[in-house]
Amino acid sequence: MSDRPSRQPAASLPRPPLDVVQQWFQAVVTHPAGVAAGAASPAAQRLVRLDRGALEQLVRRSRRLTAEQRLEIYANAYYARLLECLRDTFPVLAQVLGAEVFDSFAFDYLQRYPSRSYTLYRLAESFPRFLDETRPDQQPGPGAAGAAGAAWPDFLIDLATLELAIAEVFDGPGAEGEPLLAPADLLARQAGGDFAATRLAPVPCLRLLRFRYPVNAFFSSAMAMRTRRLASSPELLDSPATSEAASAGTGAAAADLPIPDPGEEHIALSRTDYVVRRYSLTPFESTVLAALVAGATVGEAIASAAAASELPDDELAAQLDAAFRRWTVAGFFRAAAVP
Question: Where do the structural domains in the chain lie, given as residue ranges?
Fold first, then answer.
C-alpha cells in the first residue's frame, strides 16, 4: 500500500463562497489572453488558487466541452458584446478605419480602459483619449492622402469625439416635457431694456464642440449617403440583423468619402423629442454661447466675444440677432433671469 496521500475527488473539495466564485469568473473570462491565462493570473489566483489545468475542480465539464471550453464561450461573448457596443457608438469611424483595424483599436482600448461600470453607457467615454494617447508620430493612416494624411490621427480623434458626444447627449439628461425659453420671451426682455443683464439657463443636453477638421460636415455626408443607400436597397432594413445592415450602409458611405482638409469647425449639440440635433456655429457665435453656458450675462458674453472679433459691429449685431432666434427656436435655454 502506498504512503502517498490519496487525491481528494474534485467534487468533495470545499467550494468558495458564491461572491468569490463570481469575482473569480469575472477575472477569468475578461482576461485578454484567454481563459487559461485568466485562471493563472494573480487576480484569479488571489480569489481561488487552482493548479494549472485544474479548472474542473471548480467548473464542471459537459459531455462535449471541457471546463476551459465552456468558459471560453463566455469570454468570447464578453468581448464580442463590448466590441459591438463600440461599433454602435462609432459607426462612421469604424467604417473609415475598416472593421479589422477598428476592432484592433477597440480591443486594445478595452485593455487600457476596461469596463468598470454596471452599465455599458460609460464604456466608450475614454475612446477619443485613447486614440490620442496611442497616436503614431507623423505616420499616415490607411487611405490618407495629401494634407489629410500627415494629420490623419487628428481627423480620427475629432470624428470619435463627435460620435461619442452624440451618444452621450442621446443617453444623458434632457429637457423633454419641460417649458423652454421661447423667442417671444427674449423679445420681451429686449423691449424691457434688461436683456444685457439677463442670464440664460441652458438645457442639460446642450454641448459645445470645436474641431480641427470639419467632421460634422463629414458625418452629415456619410449619413446622407447611408439614407440614399437604404432607400435604394430597402432589403437592408428587412434583414434579421437590422443594426448590422444599417451600419454596413453607413460604412460603405463613409468609405466612399474623401478625408477632408483641416479646417476649424464649431458645432452645438442638443436633444429635442429624444432626437439629437447638430447645429453649425460661427466662431463668434461659439464664443458667445460658451460664455452664456458658463454663466455670463448676455451683455458680458457679447462684449467679450466682440472684443476678440475682427468683424464690424453691424455684422456682429446681425449675427447675434439671427443666432439668438435660432438658439431659442432650437430650445437651447430653459429660462432667463435678471439677478
Answer: 14-81, 173-214+262-339
